[in-house]
Amino acid sequence: MHTDERPDEPAWNSIPIAAIEHYAYCARQAALIHLERYFADNAATARGQWAHDTVDQTGPSTTPDGTRRWNSLPVWDSSLGIHGICDVVEFHPEGPFPIEHKSGSYRPGGPADLQVAAQVLCLRSMFSAPVPHGVVFAGTHRRRYEVPVDATLETHLRETIANLRALLQSTTLPPARNDARCPPCSLHEGCMPEAPTHPPVSLFTPEFLDDQDD
Q1: Residue 165 domain-assigned (yes or no)
Q2: What is the pLDDT of residues 13-25, one digit of tens each?
Q3: 23 in a domain, yes or no?
Q4: pLDDT of 44-65, one tens digit each?
Q5: Model pTM?
Q6: How many domains does the chain have?
Q7: What's the rounded Cα separation, in Å, for the pair 177 and 182?
Q8: In this structure, is residue 84 part of a structural domain?
């Protein structure tokens, strides 16, 4: 996971692109990481970090076929209020496109598509280029998957950003879902999804005890 937070400003002023993927996977996970600053590693996150370490050598390079690349390229879109770091951006005659590296498999229509779409919109804004698609490189199968960023996906992304920004501006931790996503999550221990559920409460609003008789 890239460290693309900006600790000198509130989380909702400019949202890290990584938070978009976290929110798309689980709103509670996004709140724990980006509001409470709680994160824990497990085998899956360690594999992911190792996979990113192989491409996180910042700067330009050229592939054997002459394609220009830039590793760990910072990107942003001020109109959307998002920022992040692309694992790799390749520059072709028709324009640049981002390549997001994942250590596991790829699921079409999943959270990774929104993460890549956010990178694509940043590149469109920064380079004034069409950038019709991005790419997810899945380590499990060692192959690239093209993610077309059309009007439907862009609309979905904008709605997700708006919902995420509202979450980051709130003081309420979303309830745990306690479903199939929970056991493999590295935040499982701190999230405690198996705990009895209660109505959502403010993280910062004090609760007063009832009057007690002496």
Answers
A1: yes
A2: 899 999 999 999 9
A3: yes
A4: 555 556 555 555 567 888 988 9
A5: 0.79
A6: 1
A7: 8
A8: yes
Alpha-carbon distances, residue 212 vs 174, 205, 208, 209 (angstroms): 32, 21, 12, 8
Task: Please state the length of the chain.
Answer: 214
Asked whether 67 and 60 are in contact (CB, 8 A), the reply is no
Is the residue at 204 inside a domain? no
Rg (CA), the chain: 19
Pairing type for strands 95-102 and 82-92 reads: antiparallel
Q: Which tokens go with 124?
A: 């469109």
CA distance 122 to 120: 5
Q: Encode pLDDT of 146-197 as tens digits.
A: 999 999 999 999 999 999 999 999 878 888 888 888 888 888 787 888 776 5
Find the CATH number of the domain harbouring 139: 3.90.320.10
Q: 58, 214 in Cβ contact below 8 A?
A: no
For residues 194 and 48, give the distance between their C-alpha atoms in angstroms, rounded to a whole number: 26
Q: Which helix (H) or strand (E) holds 176?
A: none
- Domain range holding 99? 15-191
Query: Which tokens belong to 91?
Result: 């520059």
The whole-angstrom separation of Cα 15 and Cα 12 is 6
Integer Cα distance of 174 and 140 in angstroms: 32
| The CA-based dihedral angle spanning residues 162, 167, 168, 173, taken in that order and rounded to the nearest 10 degrees | -170
